[in-house]
Amino acid sequence: MGLKVIGAGLGRTGTASLKVALEQLGIGRCHHMGEVLADPEQIPLWIEAADGSPDWDRLMRGFSASVDYPSCSYWRELAEVYPDAKIILSTRSAESWFESVNATIMAPRFNDFIAPTPWGQMIKRTIWDTLEGRMGDREFMIDYFERRNDEIQRTVPADRLLVFEAREGWAPLCDFLGLPVPDTEFPRINQREETKKILDGLMTGGEDGPDEETMAGARDDLFAS
Predict the structure, then answer these.
(1) What number is the average pLDDT over the span 148-172?
(2) What is the structure's pLDDT at 125?
(3) Which residue from 223, 197, 190, 222 is spatially nearest to 13, judged by alpha carbons?
(4) pLDDT score recorded for residue 141
(5) Hey, is 166 helix, strand or coil?
(6) Which residues lie below 8 Å from residue 164, measured CB to CB, with a gap of 6+?
(7) Where does the pLDDT of residue 190 fall: very low under 50, low under 70, confident under 90, or very high at 90 and above?
């Protein structure tokens, strides 16, 4: 199948809304961290990708697009493997991004809970290591966010790249993809409080972390709004 769209934006930049929007536009199924929640068999494959031995055909099998972690950590590799795919850099202010991740997906309490689990090991290799383990360092994180966005905008050809904020709605996204604007509101899901509730639910597991049923339920909750 091959990817048609590659999301380069980091998690908590409207990626869940973008996933739903792309699927509503008929692009096809879109990979997102939520899909890893629903399919733990992906975990060792992502660890292999972090080790430098990715099987992109297997990881992206059945998907026409990718957004969010962990795939956004490999936007450059995916862009080379799928040279015809368009690239979307979802973004927001660096300060608000830090506040969001620090309260949700990179909150210290959540990080400590998942660290010993297989899921946590995958997240460490594909996310935390790219941040040098400095998720709580405001100055570092804001600088990282801005430098990364600048690099993407410098290196991706302008006709292949859309810099996008979810608050802009359908128009720039549809124009970039050459698709008509739907007669529906742009999806806005996975807001901060919703995400915190989902993460709290995941932390009800024992020492081995959430079981497969709990993780699959979290995935359903993530895209239910």
Answers:
(1) 97
(2) 97
(3) 190
(4) 98
(5) helix
(6) 9, 14, 18, 88, 89, 90, 91, 172, 173, 176
(7) low
